[in-house]
Design a protein that fits this description.
322 residues, alpha/beta, TIM Barrel, 8-stranded parallel beta sheet, two-stranded antiparallel ribbon
């Protein structure tokens, strides 16, 4: 598998990553052995970028990754988010204390000495970005992470302020055919700074996979029951868009999920999608997107089927801990 530079670093990563969130129960049941096999299969296929978080499964996710990569640390690039916590009813994500605690605890859980990228899960609305970035920069100096990044609630202005304190190598945010918000300035800001852009939920939290046709298809206990895109009225509209995309995908002999990921990798950036997989079958379907050739005509057809704003349901709701 080819490699691309991860932002302004010397890290070389696969053009598609593996999001590990679904391996810790947020999207229904999972099997630890299959999840470990999925991570190892990703490495066999050349996918070396793993995305995790301090919050996923309250530590289960990072412990799972530790088992999967034992003895193979040099084969992976670990991007670990710091998560958020509640203090006096308020979400805390950017205090120096929180950033240090989550970094050091993540290292212990993962069984490693240094993260490749430590990513603040959300821009804290109370803590100045300069203070948060300064705290993460100190962790770089101490050798606890090689690089730092940010995710969620960033803006071009905040990115500029962050860079005046320390290089920020990537931005992670939701981006898919259904959620086009980053096109409003974030992608351009990343290009100006030479940052990588990581697209989480690149399959619209599952709808663009083609596996969900109605609310009844969503497993009990799955957090997507709270996602506006899955609510009655919205899901029918969104599935109708998927049906149209499936026709184009069928012409190319690929699943609609593969088409949606291939579209993302054609966006100027580069954009690195990190679809979450908890089985080898889904992983291999996602990785196949790298070999899909989309012509200018294909891209125009996709855009006509699903232009910005086409999907129904707000995109600003938090449906999982990051």
């Amino acid at each position: 598998m080819k490699r691309i530079k991860f932002g302004p670093t010397d890290l070389l990563v696969s053009p598609i990553g593996l999001g590990c969130m679904s391996m810790s129960g947020c999207y229904g049941q999972q099997d630890d052995d299959e999840c470990i096999a999925t991570i190892r299969r990703a490495l066999e296929l050349g996918v070396n970028l793993l995305d995790t978080s301090y919050n996923y499964g309250e530590g289960h996710n990072q412990a799972l990754i530790a088992k999967a990569i034992k003895g193979r640390r040099d084969e992976v690039v670990i991007h670990s988010k710091t998560g958020t916590t509640r203090v006096s009813g308020k979400r805390v994500s950017g205090t120096p204390e929180h950033l240090r605690k989550t970094c050091e605890t993540s290292l212990q859980r993962l069984g490693i000495d240094c993260l490749d990228v430590l990513c603040m899960s959300r821009v804290d609305p109370v803590v100045p970005i300069e203070e948060s970035v300064g705290a993460m920069a100190q962790l770089v100096k101490e050798g606890k992470t090689r690089h730092i990044a940010i995710s969620k609630d960033a803006s071009p202005e905040l990115i500029g302020r962050a860079w005046r304190v320390h290089p920020v190598v990537s931005l992670q945010d939701e981006y898919s055919l259904f959620i086009r918000n980053p096109e409003g300035g974030l992608l351009a800001a990343c290009r100006r700074q030479g940052m990588a852009f990581m697209a989480f939920a690149p399959l619209g939290r599952g709808i663009l996979s083609g596996r969900y046709r109605s609310v009844a298809d969503v497993p009990a206990g799955d957090r997507r029951h709270r996602d506006p895109r899955y609510q009655p009225g919205n899901i029918e509209h969104n599935v109708s868009i998927v049906h149209k995309l499936e026709k184009l995908a069928a012409e190319k002999g690929i699943p609609v999920a593969t088409l949606a990921l291939a579209w993302l990798m054609k966006r100027e950036g580069p954009v690195i999608p990190i679809p979450s997989s908890k089985s080898r079958d889904h992983l291999e379907q996602n990785v196949a997107a790298m070999d899909v050739d989309l012509s200018a005509e294909d891209l125009a057809r996709i855009e006509s089927i699903c232009p910005p704003g086409a999907a129904a349901g707000r995109s600003d709701i938090v449906t999982h801990k990051v």
